[in-house]
Structures are given as structure tokens and as C-alpha cells.
Design a protein that fits this description.
Distance between the termini: 17 Å
CATH topology of the largest domain: Chitinase A, domain 3
Largest sheet: 5 strands, antiparallel
Number of helices: 1
CATH class of the largest domain: Alpha Beta
Number of strands: 9
CATH architecture of the largest domain: Roll
Radius of gyration: 19 Å
Low-confidence stretches: none
Shape: elongated
Helix content: under 10%
Strand content: 35-45%
Structural class: mainly beta
Length: about 140
């Protein structure tokens, strides 16, 4: 039976959970996730678990945050004056907003703290700083030429 190698395109069904068992993402009920192994399109810890696997093989891997979405970067949290935000923008905790960087790029942020004078926005990935577990199955392998 042929094994997955770097450069192959694979399709997997997966479920990703946090340490407490909370499911943060799954392909259940959706099309499988398809990508090229080693291309950098998925988190490194999951990508590195694929080579050597075979069609139909299932695996569960625990991935430390550094091999997932990285550690929390405190420099990506910023408190800004509340009066600098238009009144029609919702500022409830957990609200996801989009800001624009000075060079025009969209930057997703999450409201993580708010009081009467300031709002703290966090540009870290929502899963940064979290260890993840993926249970997945290889459902297709297209070998690189």
C-alpha cells in the first residue's frame, strides 16, 4: 500500500478539539479538507503527522500551540480609546471586528476587554496559545508526479 509523502495532495476528514474536549472545527457534514502535504497550507503539527500514513488510516495527534497557531503574542493586543470607535460598532466581549493596517491589509481582531474608556482588541489567532488535538482519516491520496 502506498504511503503519503511530501508533495502529495491528500483529502482528510478531521475533528479538532481543545484540551477540554471542545470541538473547534470538524469536516463532519462537509467536504473533506484537501491540501498538498508540506505546502504550508495547514498547521505544521498536523502537516508533519501525515507522511507515512496510508489510505483509510486514522490517527489522533496532540499538537502543542507552537506547532499549531503559535503562542499568544502580547504585542498583538492593544487598548484603544473607546471614543475613537464609531458608536454603531458592537463592542461586546468576543465580538470579531476587522481593522485595516496602515498598508491597507485587513486585520481580524477580537474584543477581549472593554470598560467605559478603553477597548482592548486582540489580533492573535483565536486558537493561539492553545494545544490542539486532531482525529483524522486519510480518504484520498494523489501522489505527486
Amino acid at each position: 500500500m502506498t504511503q503519503v509523502k511530501t508533495g502529495d495532495t491528500v483529502a482528510i476528514h478531521y475533528t479538532g478539539t481543545l484540551d477540554d474536549g471542545t470541538v473547534f472545527d470538524t469536516s463532519d457534514g462537509r467536504d473533506p479538507l484537501e491540501f498538498t502535504v508540506g505546502s504550508g497550507h495547514i498547521i505544521p503539527g498536523l502537516d508533519s503527522a501525515l507522511p507515512g500514513m496510508t489510505l483509510g488510516e486514522r490517527k489522533t495527534v496532540a499538537i502543542e500551540c507552537e506547532q499549531a497557531y503559535g503562542a499568544l503574542n502580547p504585542d498583538l493586543r492593544q487598548a484603544i480609546p473607546r471614543d475613537g470607535i464609531p458608536k454603531d460598532i458592537p463592542l461586546d466581549l468576543g465580538t470579531q471586528l476587522q481593522m485595516q493596517t496602515p498598508d491597507g491589509q485587513a486585520l481580524p481582531v477580537t474584543v477581549v476587554e472593554a470598560d467605559e474608556t478603553t477597548v482592548t482588541l486582540d489580533a492573535n489567532h483565536p486558537l493561539a496559545g492553545k494545544d490542539l488535538t486532531f482525529d483524522f482519516e486519510i480518504i484520498r491520496i494523489d501522489h505527486a508526479a
